[in-house]
Specification:
The protein contains ten helices and ten strands. By secondary structure, it is of the alpha/beta class. It folds into two domains: about 160 residues, P-loop containing nucleotide triphosphate hydrolases (Rossmann fold, 3-Layer(aba) Sandwich), CATH 3.40.50; about 55 residues. Strands 6-7-8-3-9-10 form a six-stranded mixed beta sheet, with helices on both faces. The longest helix is centred in the middle third of the chain and has 15 residues.
């Protein structure tokens, strides 16, 4: 059974049909890419899965549970995490404290009231920063990081409570080619404990990282399959490549 099942999902914004009967299945332990021309509905689909957009019709099931009408905080508690396209780190706090706050969000009230969580969580904070090459910036303000490092910090925050599914919306936007390469290296190890759905315009990046690709066009699924199948798809060649 798929970890994530989206069935006949439709989203209307007034008269605009942003999603039109989208079906999507994501198996646990896989990296699944969503690609397509601008305006094809990729980010809208991610936000509907995360609960930022309420679908007009259709269903979303996560880990066997219908979450179509669940508020975002319930989806987070169930193990779903989203990193938006625009970075939303807390720039006036240290890199360390950004991660500490993310980890504290998963702690119970008694633990927080004891004021011992900073000491208890220190090894987890530093371990998370080390995995994304930010340990040497722990005491710096998050706002002083480069754009690429801020993106890595936000991915670190999204992974802090060890979600079952991570949704990434254009994580390499604005990065240099070297930063994009490193981002791929940093994401690959999470496969052991986290499934990934990623929206990305850098096709080479997605191809190097993902097991399966879903191509959207005008709010509909144009095609789906392995990287090799999508590369051979005549429908994708005729529609997608002419619009990206």
């Amino acid at each position: 059974m798929a970890l994530l099942e989206v069935t006949a999902l439709t989203k209307m914004f007034g008269q605009l049909r942003a999603l039109d009967g989208v079906d999507l299945g994501v198996r646990a332990g896989t990296f699944h890419g969503l690609i397509g021309p601008n305006g094809s509905g990729k980010s809208t689909l991610l936000k509907a899965i995360a609960g930022a957009h309420a679908p007009t019709s259709g269903t979303i099931r996560f880990d066997g549970r219908d979450i179509t009408a669940a508020p975002p905080f319930e989806r987070t508690r169930a193990g779903l995490s989203l990193k938006f396209q625009i970075t939303s780190v807390l720039p006036e706090l240290s890199v360390y404290d950004n991660v500490l706050l993310a980890l504290q969000s998963g702690e119970g009230l008694p633990s927080l009231l004891s004021s011992r969580t900073r000491r208890i969580l220190d090894s987890k904070v530093m371990g998370a920063l080390d995995r994304f090459r930010l340990a040497n910036r722990a005491d710096d303000l998050a706002g002083e990081l480069s754009h690429g490092q801020q993106q890595w910090l936000e991915i670190t925050l999204a992974l802090a409570c060890r979600p079952k599914l991570l949704l990434l919306d254009e994580p390499t936007g604005g990065m240099s080619p070297e930063e994009r390469r490193v981002t791929g290296e940093l994401l690959r190890p999470i496969r052991s404990h986290c499934t990934l759905v990623i929206v990305e315009h850098d096709i080479d990046f997605v191809k190097s990282l993902c097991d399966c690709l879903t191509v959207l066009d005008q709010g509909r699924v144009l095609d789906e399959g392995s990287v090799e199948q999508i590369e051979r798809s005549r429908k994708v060649q005729e529609v997608y490549t002419s619009r990206v």
